[in-house]
Amino acid sequence: MIQDTYAYAQELVSKMTVEEKMSQMLYQSPAIDRLGIPTYNWWNESLHGVARAGVATMFPQAIGLGATFDKELLNEIADVISTEGRAKFTAYSEKGDRGIYKGITFWAPNINIFRDPRWGRGHETFGEDPYLTAELGISYIKGLQGPDREHLKATACAKHFAVHSGPEELRHSFDAVVNKRDLYDTYLYAFKRCVDEGEVEAVMGAYNRVNGEPACGSKTLLIDILRGDWKFKGHVVSDCWAINDFHEYHGVTKVVEESAAMAVNNGCDLNCGNAFLHLPKAFEKGLVKEEVIDEAVTRLLDTRIRLGMLSEYPSPYDNIPYSKVECKEHIELSIEAARRSVVLLKNDGVLPLNKKEIKTIAVIGPNADSREALIGNYTGTSSEYITPLEGIKAHVGDDIRVVYAQGAHLFKDREEALGEPNDRLAEAIVTAEMADVVVICLGLDASIEGEQGDTGNAYASGDKIDLELPGNQQALIEAVKRTNKPIIYLLSTGSAMGLKWADENVSAILQTWYPGARGGKAIADVLFGEVSPSGKLPVTFYESSKDMPDFCDYSMDNRTYRYLEEKALYPFGYGLNYTKLKYSNTSMNKEEFDFTDEIEISTTITNNGDYPANEIVQVYIKDIEASVKVPNYELKGFESIFIKPGESIDLAIKLNIRDFAFIDDEGKCIFEPGQFEVSIGGQQPDERSEELTKLSVDKVLININGERQEIEY
């Protein structure tokens, strides 16, 4: 019985030729039969379900999962994903299929910070806040990898390390220049916690340079910080073909052999791409030493051993049946996640809809009956898709007539190739005039916002050029408004849009994200009051993009709620519901704290309304007396609670001294004694949130004593 998997990996590596070792550093790793090592393809995706390998349960896109603010839910979803991934891996392997997207090394989660709403890949993230990203990332990682580090259920990969959030068009040549304060304050925080607390097995490097060094070959990032300061023991994988960028676009090397050697020598173990095919030549030239290759291959083999891929160390997960794939329980969880992800941004009282008062509903818009608007990117196949139109029809049955019009193409000026501009507009107006209420479904899909090369958005490589609706969508909603019918606006996007006109002109707005394969059922449940909306914004909705910093500027000044200088349209952490919640009896466990004291805030939440609700209780900290620039507010605690009408729940949230520290200009984590404001409630403690909700949060001023000192990051 093998007791030490790393020692076993070292033993196997010692029996390999140098050529065999280097072959194991390719994402398509060939078998070494004499050592009992089977062939394996490392490349698989699981952003919101097992992707690109046939049927699987499809959950809301990651940004929608971020809107749930629910750590337990993320853990449960990730556990489902690894269950289905395991079932597929076992079944496919038995049939001799060990190809791409069939493995159990998943390249997720994406824990980059969604610093700019124009970034096309932002919907792959959990949002703009480092703390929220860390908490949800840790939960996802633990759910995916399972409770036993020595017998991994699957492996997670924190990506893209680091300082990576667009522009997509420039990512292969871009140098993300960032100061030390923003580097540690914003861009590295979630990675550090996912390494320390999540014990993530893998980290993927980014395409771009960071302060002059290509991320997949950065001594600063991979050697000094990741393996040095953070003591990371797992393996590092390059983003796909990123190492070729070293010589082709970044110009830091001249030929591919130099690029491959630079990556390996700086801690990159596995190559998604073809650069490591040239490692033998780099080795012959003396650019890389065998002991460095040994370390890399040992790390990779240790992962495979603990996943149970070698017969000498079997996995307890080998017997998960294929019947678990898209089973009833998993589908129900995906629908519940979709319900929980919906954010109610505005409601003048029209919601929830009362079926007894409606005879005809008009469902209008290019995303009303679109499967693409359900799924996002990095997606698998569902056995059933339920669009908003289908969900509404199923919910009302024969009791209410549902009429439909597309109204506009998603981004073109006409639907039919030989049609005239706005060739679907008249139909939409006629349809709206027939109805008692209009549900208009607008936004984007992953063909417009997404990764460079994956989208048809050639003019911006997957990024948005501004925050406006594409094509004739704005003209459509304005035309429907002129019918004077109540409008419920469903916005299907993975990012913040400019909603100032809608905020002033429609009755209700629901941000539905990309809600997963059966998202239309969840949306109907929210519209008709089967559930109260509970999602909170994981990103800031700005009034427009005209005053936003340059997209290429990686300074956090005037970015995200933490450093925003003007009022947001809809703030981070904001979201309405159908019930009436009250916070009371808020207090700290002490009024004066010493550096080593336990710090805890407690409150009572009472549901005085008629609807049960999932409330997201949020704790923010403001350093009142900091000697350096600090964020406006910082989320430092949150809990999701289910509360019935008439029920009161007492809740306490613990904080630690790291939550009260700041990052200085040298990138040091500093605790400075003084006065702090701690707030707790269902929203951020800013004026705009209070204006929108007509509610305020409870705030407590505390003093923490001690010496000014550097503490652990």
Written description of the protein model:
- There is one protein chain.
- The protein has 713 residues and is an alpha/beta fold.
- The protein folds into 3 domains: 27-314, TIM Barrel (Alpha-Beta Barrel), CATH 3.20.20; 328-537, 3-Layer(aba) Sandwich (Rossmann fold), CATH 3.40.50; 581-710, Immunoglobulin-like (Sandwich), CATH 2.60.40.
- It has 21 helices and 25 strands.
- The protein has a 6-stranded mixed sheet with strand order 9-14-13-12-10-11, sandwiched between helices. It has a 5-stranded mixed sheet with strand order 16-24-23-18-19, with no helix packed on it. A 3-stranded parallel sheet has the order 3-5-8.
- α5 (130-145) runs parallel beside α7 (189-196) and α15 (388-396) packs across α19.
- It is globular, with a radius of gyration of 26 Å.
- The relative contact order is 0.12.
Keyword list:
TIM Barrel, 713 residues, Immunoglobulin-like, 25 strands, Rossmann fold, single chain, 21 helices, alpha/beta
Q: Based on CA inertia axes, which overall geometry fits?
A: globular
CATH superfamily of the largest domain: Glycoside hydrolase, family 3, N-terminal domain
Mean pLDDT: 97
CATH topology of the largest domain: TIM Barrel
Low-confidence stretches: none
Which second-level CATH architecture of the largest domain applies? Alpha-Beta Barrel
Distance between the termini: 39 Å
* Helix percent band: 25-40%
Please state roughly what percent of the residues sit in beta strands, choosing from under 5%, 5-15%, 15-25%, 25-35%, 35-45% or over 45%.
15-25%
Give me the number of helical elements: 21
Helix/strand class: alpha/beta
